[in-house]
Amino acid sequence: MKRIGWFLLLLLTPVLAWAGGGPAAAAESHLTGTIYGYLGIIVFVLAYSLVPLENNIHLRKSKPVLLAAGIIWVLLSVAYIRIGDTHTAHEAIKHSLLEYAELFLFLLAAMTYINAMEERNVFQALRAYLVSRGFSLRMIFWVTGLLAFFISPIADNLTTALLMGAVVMAVGGDNKKFVALACINVVVAANAGGAFSPFGDITTLMVWQKAKVQFSEFFRIFIPSLVNWMVPAVVMSLAIEKATPKTLDESIQMKYGAKAIMAFFLMTIATAVCFHNFLHLPPVAGMMLGLGFLGPLSYHIKMHEGRAERYDYILGARGAESLYPITTITKSKLDLSQIIEKIDLPAFAIDIDHTITHWNKACERFTGRNAREMVGTRDQWKPFYEDQQPVMADLVLNYMPEKMIDRQYEGNFTRNEYISGAYEASRFVSTLGDSGRWVSFTGAPVKDESGNVLGAVEVLEDFTEKKAAAKHFDLMKKIARAEWDTLLFFYGVILCVGGLAQFGYLGAISQYMYHDLGATWANVIVGFLSAIVDNIPVMFAVLTMDPAMSHGQWLLVTLTAGVGGSMLSIGSAAGVALMGTARGTYTFGTHLKWTPIIILGYAASIVCHLFINAHLM
């Protein structure tokens, strides 16, 4: 009965927050039977029960666990003080904070590189290439799955799933059956691919940082991971029709520096590995050095793009920020020409008499008017309006009061807070394209070094697609929120887990799972728990329990924790993210229909590992 009780307690609490300041300290504290320990469990269970409901109640998952973490450590500290110990809790929380700091800085460096590649159009160019190839639906199913499997070990499973999901939805269109099956395939492939690399998932990263598995040893579970994806993929592909959708005409070029950023990211990975293997330093130190590589490169990109007069952001600049160099240009028209041409957005300049002096190539492509017919005229209004009226550059050149700008743009304007006299506005322009475009206009006066006005410049940006996406799902905003929300979530989980383990619950659960059931069955259960509970606290718990098991068993738990989340759509960040982007098409229910087949792949991968790596078990 005692064993059954512990097992039920394990299932009723989200892994009972297995982790913390070490089994020995927990065992010596004898706090498991105190009211403080029971309250700690209740607080964690209540907080963690809100995490799976994030998309329903619209409460960020980090908020309840952050609150729970603080309460649990207050309870733990009071419990120790009651027995006259004012030192142990302090040392234990320092241990948990160190665990979190290493994870936080590692992920921060990796996320920065991923976002830098996103800003330089690396992933968008890959997506455009795929959707314009004219592949059949079945071919797209296999290509997106294969790419998800091989990209996720480097770019992480969440980013990979979002990228491949965008390809699936662009090609599949209204074919809900294909989109749903292809999304399931992407989730399974991304999770499986992330399992055999320290960079593919948070759980594998933690295993590597704890030195339980060396970098090269992760590839021992490559074939089991491949089997985990291939088994359900083969079965699901039979349900995909052989039709060929209409080819989408899309072409996106990577921005300047994109290839260099990719190369530096690979160098950063190599640096982290070398720090760990040869210098015997934490991998996070290598990642932060790698982040330093990005600094000089971003400065070079800034100089190349003509943004020398302002501090650079590590991810580059877009939109109105491209105007900053113009605020301090000299009287030389050559300088203005060089700057205007380096701006990658459509831009033009007018002199003090409102005559066009510069019309860059991007502006030619955007408006369909070449520089030869525009320069020397006052026709800057013609591409945007049917009747003559002032554009933003004309308004800022004449220091028009905001009332006039408001009348022109019907309230859709704002003062630029960084450039004196500059304004930004947006409106729908019916004369552009076949059906009109939404355009943002940013105008600023051009001054010489003495502050004398020489003219004005205007930068344009087509945000038709962004405006349409904003009505449904702002992908970039969601990714940004998910990253920082996830980093704070990690803090809450690690501190919650550390506090509850310090109470002493870890030893009893470890005894039941890894001694009574045996390591193999315990590690198989870890995979199923990862489908219900986030795999991060599950793996962090196992690492902190540090059960005495063979190297093969550590590889097994790395595999099961990584791929177990594929069994349910809510079992991994990749699944949750795609449910948001393919809302109404890829759902919990559609994924659940294929769960038995995914479980078959899960079982096959375990059998494959037990066979291939039998000598390590």
Question: How does this structure look, described?
Answer:
There is one protein chain. The chain is α+β, with helices and mostly antiparallel strands. It has three domains: 2-87 and 492-616, no CATH class; 117-304, no CATH class; 319-469, Beta-Lactamase, CATH 3.30.450.20. 61% of the residues lie in helices and 6% in strands. The protein contains 28 helices and six strands. It has a six-stranded antiparallel β-sheet, with helices on both faces. It is globular, with a radius of gyration of 28 Å. The chain starts with a helix and ends in a 5-residue tail after the last helix. 45% of the residues are buried. Residues 1-29, 308-334 and 468-482 have low confidence and may be disordered. The chain crosses the membrane at residues 36-53, 65-83, 95-114, 135-151, 178-199, 219-240, 260-278, 486-509, 521-543, 555-582, 594-612. Residues 332-376 form the PAS domain. One of its GO terms (cellular component) is membrane. Keywords: Antiport, Ion transport, Membrane, Signal, Sodium, Sodium transport, Transmembrane, Transmembrane helix, Transport. Its main location: membrane.
